[in-house]
Known about the structure:
The protein is of the alpha+beta class. Helices cover 38% and strands 28% of the residues. Helix 5 (120-140) packs across helix 6.
Amino acid sequence: MSTTAVITPYDPETEDFRNDLAIKEEMAVSQFREEMRKNRLKSTKLPIGGCARMDLKRTSITINTPSIDFVRRAAEGIGYTARVIDSGNIVLSRKDGPLIDISQTKTGKVTLSTRKPDITPARNIVREHMAMLIYGYQKSIGMDVEARRTQFGEITVEAQSKNQKKVITDIREDGVAVVDVSGVKGKGCQEIITGIAIAVGGKQIDTRLKSEYFLATEEERRINV
Length: 225
């Protein structure tokens, strides 16, 4: 493996606590990630921990995104009906869930709000939105992409190129994406991660460099000498 990074879709100005939790949780499970991925469809669940519990007390979440329309499309993909109201705001409805309001801030960010104390339905839309954009971006750069939904509510997007570059992205229940890049040496890993972050309008909040990165760096030094 080359590099693992955590990308959050949430507005850093209002979601610092959530982002800190995402980093801590990812650090806690990173050493078990490969084993967990193999068993995920069977019986193992990647823990979400306090991040999900914290959200139950909130009524809205704010994300950075290229378009409010992308959020609407993601919601419609999981059964919501969208109705545009005044000022371009959107109301989402579904038989088995609460109404969710989508609005865009003056700075271009998107807020999802619900009249219920449980914000989980809104987080589900964020997760779908992230998966849709990541899948589309990797397709656009010529990678073979496959997405699957686990029984635990997470989405895994696997992309591979002809030269054996492989990117596995786990989109957690809270919408935070964990990107694992392999088959790439040196700075190429960061270029891939940056591309994904830009595509979703997200922010890279944690990075761990692996052996392939340092191997390539050492090779470059030898060549330069």
